[in-house]
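re: that chain from earlier
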Amino acid sequence: MNIDGGAIAILLVTFFSLTVLGTHVAFAMISAAILTTMYLGFPLLTVMQNLINGINGFAFLAIPFFILAGQIMSSGGISERLVQLSNALVGWMRGGLALVNILASMFFGGISGSATADTASLGSILIPMMKKNGYDGDFSTTVTMASSVQGLLVPPSHNMVIFALAAGGVSIGRLFMGGLVPGIFLGIALMVFSYVMAVIRQYPKGDHFALRELIVALRRSILGLGTIFIVVIGVVTGVFTATESAAIAVIYAFIVTFFIYREIPLREFWTILGSTMKTLSMVLILIAAAGAFGWCIAFLRIPTLLAQGILGFTSSKVVALLIINVILLVLGTMMGMASIIVIMTPILLPIVMQLGMDPVQFGVIMILNCGIGLLTPPVGGVLFVGSAVSGIKVEYLSKAMLPFYAVMFAVLMCITFIPGITMFLPNLLMP
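^ sequence. v structure.
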């Protein structure tokens, strides 16, 4: 195999140099692809063709629809309803508000698919409430931030769609099913840890369990949760594709938010649409840039070289998977989630498949790694949102997050080395 070391050096040095200098990741990828293409002697039209091919597909329509549906539901009063439902379910326990926070994040994240939106929306409600009831401010904030990662795993998640497309056509339905159990598993692990902390610190209990309150809360929130059921059931049963389910979810969310809940006026739809377009533009330019950058990576056989390097370094599958997780965790401290997915999926997926891992399991592993990255400095978006909502400095929150990092890393290891956690539902429902 002929290796063009000069082209590889130009591609990687240009990309990482521009990234370190603060250039947006998408423009760093495009610039690196242009310089590498010129060095290889190919026409620049090659770059443009791969930019277009990067986003030229019917499945890509699922991304804007899922983002828009999440934006509508997260703006329309669903947060308070989910908090009420979670409080009725677990608020009566020791440290009940912490458990409410985690459960509400599981529900809300499944609707919004965004850890940042989860932290901003639920955090503005629950962090002041927890502090008022005697919880420490740093604990109130860190449990909010850590639990927000569940929304990246629980379907529907537009990040799963991005991974499916970056991986070259992995079933979105199987990815949705693959993320469900790990998302719940992460929530349970965080609940157990929070309960232990509540007992140690003597955080208060809530009111006694009341079936009447649970029924009332369920009735108020069931329409909001309907978005999840529409997408998941529709995709799993094959009634419609992921793109079609996302479009239906937008229509459903629009009707529920503006004509049933009616907590925000219809004119706010244009603000929501503008916010969606801003998010979508960042996501799509990343995916387009990754098309050109990924072509260079594939042409230069970088995945093969990396695979040979990792597998040549160790013959142990356990060590190889640990190395891959460390790579993703380190990148998560420096880059955004979508950037890591579109850049690293074509590189690492062939390696894990050689190790016998299903692409669905790797997708869940990558999403969780990126989710942990959202909580870590220096560029962790959720970390900065939590700081803004709580008023606590980032450096204090980073220190307070340490035990939560440990819990989430333990969950990550379980998902990495116990395939059944991820693959049970996809193999059962969508074999």
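The mean pLDDT is 84.
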